[in-house]
Design goal:
Elements (H helix, E strand, L loop, with lengths): L1 E3 L20 H11 L2 E7 H16 L6 H8 L2 E4 L11 E4 L3 H10 L4 E5 L2 H9 L5 E7 L21 E7 L5 E6 L1
Parallel strand pairs: 1-6, 2-3, 2-5, 3-4
Antiparallel strand pairs: 6-8, 7-8
Helix pairs in contact: 2-3
Length: 180
Amino acid sequence: MQMTIDGFAAGPNGELDWMVQDWDDELKKYVDEITEPVDCILLGRKMSEGFITSWASQIANPETADAFAHKMVDTPKIVFSKTLESVKWENTELAKGDIVEEVNRLKNQTGRDIIVYGGADFVSSLIKENLIDEYNLFIHPTAIGRGMTIFGKLEDKSASLKLKSSQSYNCGIVVNTYLK
């Protein structure tokens, strides 16, 4: 999850203009390493359209069709929504049931890793239900003062986490990895 230094995953209206775009090679390598074992991507409805469309357009262009873009398009995706009736994208299924049951069903299937590409509200729901095993928080060197948080639905200290690693990168981003 990408976050500001003051703990927001997006601006008050979902703005992402605060993100560092010029990632250094070491950070890109780290992202490749954590996504290599992934064989399922979870998305919330709000995030799905921009995410899936963006990666599909990248592989349509020979200049941007790198291995990571192909990984994002080719990996099966599950979009969680109470309002969508169907999804139009390749390698994508719709999950309309109870989030706890759906995620636990996926976690219990044979396979490799599952990764979540949020949306603050969707990730907040997963955190509230204690469904995330490992957090990779990409802390950008920007404060925005207010916005959307991923920990806002917690009702108690149920997200007590253990620091696994912390690594700073030349582009200014620090990645903190926590285990539940």
